[in-house]
């Protein structure tokens, strides 16, 4: 009898736990996506005091939204399956962890859920109007446009742009996370996100060859891994559903990582990804700025500098690791060779730290040309930052499978950290690298 009682109370507990006391993001089925959904915008407020339990608010009931604080709107994009975005909860929590603010999740899943993209994109201006109505009420209650920040993902980025345009660019900030490309590519500024939509607009482009927008849309446009294929994402359709959205979603995961402060991702202002890989864009000592632009939440550190530029726009490139926290550490490998003939080939460099950790960088985007007594500076990217390097391994390859094996005679190699120019430069003199044979050595401090 007692046991039965316990069982019943346990069931009640489970029941009350699933009772909808906390509103959650609209969850729809694939069936809804097939038949299509009418637009319904729900605004869900999260605050530091209510981090996990949302409060539904609207333009007539602002709830616990404190208008004197910063308000961040998070706007999702197209939902071809009806499911809630997988990243939403982590993004909200991470925002609340860095700063006390109101986070308003704009749930327009009814509207965004459809298998027909044009039906979703056709609703973006309507969503923007609803947000305008809401923000007008916030302003009436004493909020300031300066404190309004919108993070828009995919179609959501353009929605944020439309809202910003209605306020003539006076919104504090818009961050576009892989703004949608299809149907927006090539459109005039009023029909898409553009730098005049807020006081500061920063954009991450992670899928420019499919779902994302290729051209710059903000004051600063970040192109991780060149903006095309992201490491760790499936390269073929056999990767399943992930194949379609992995690159696109990477912009959101990179942004979230910037809030979690494990490491900061620096980006390098540059005209092209190729120039960045060639090591031509590694100095960020522009104007009064001493450190490179940071990706994500802290991108606005560069705001003043960027707004002074004419036009106030800049592209920045960087590479990421496959996994969180995604940071890569840049070094220069300077090589002076003394082969009689010009040698072209690729260098792979491995570092072993005093703590035993090993990290590797392949510099293989294009062959490097080694000429007698000329210094070649190669940009090497490692996914670990080894404070003390005990051993270096170099491998030279021409990548040709037939023909003779070559050697690269190295007069001097030098390794220097880009992020920590103060660290001692490591050198090695007089080496012969036999093609495809790893040469391991202990570096010494470079002669001054
Ligand atoms: C927390 O959320 C609940 C549910 O929406 C709401 O009733 C309550 O007022 C909120 N509390 C605070 C302190 O925001
Ligand atoms: C706004 O929210 C309040 C409180 O949740 C609700 O009573 C009211 O019906 C909502 N108004 C609109 C226009 O949805
Ligand atoms: C709103 O925020 C301000 C400053 O951040 C604070 O002083 C005030 O007490 C808050 N109001 C409420 C009702 O919590």
TrEMBL record:
Catalyzed reaction equations: 1-hexadecanoyl-2-(9Z-octadecenoyl)-sn-glycero-3-phosphate + H2O = 2-(9Z-octadecenoyl)-sn-glycero-3-phosphate + hexadecanoate + H(+)
Matching Gene3D superfamilies: alpha/beta hydrolase
Signal peptide feature range: 1-18
CDD domains: Pancreat_lipase_like
Principal cellular location given in the protein's record: membrane
Residue span(s) of domain Lipase: 37-326
Subcellular location: Cell membrane; Secreted
Molecular function as annotated in GO: carboxylic ester hydrolase activity; heparin binding; metal ion binding; phospholipase activity
Cellular compartments per GO CC: extracellular space; plasma membrane
Superkingdom, taxonomy of origin: Eukaryota
Membrane topology: Peripheral membrane protein
Pfam family, one: Lipase
InterPro entries for this protein: AB_hydrolase_fold, Lipase, Lipase_LIPH, Lipase_N, TAG_lipase
Active site: 154 (nucleophile), 178 (charge relay system), 248 (charge relay system)
Keyword Secreted: yes
Cell membrane as UniProt keyword: yes
Coiled-coil segments: none
GO terms of biological process kind: lipid catabolic process; phosphatidic acid biosynthetic process
Quaternary data: Interacts with TTMP/C3orf52.
Family: Belongs to the AB hydrolase superfamily. Lipase family.
Function: Hydrolyzes specifically phosphatidic acid (PA) to produce 2-acyl lysophosphatidic acid (LPA; a potent bioactive lipid mediator) and fatty acid. Does not hydrolyze other phospholipids, like phosphatidylserine (PS), phosphatidylcholine (PC) and phosphatidylethanolamine (PE) or triacylglycerol (TG).
Protein name (record): Lipase member H
Organism expressing this protein natively: Phodopus roborovskii (Roborovski's desert hamster)
Gene for this chain: Liph
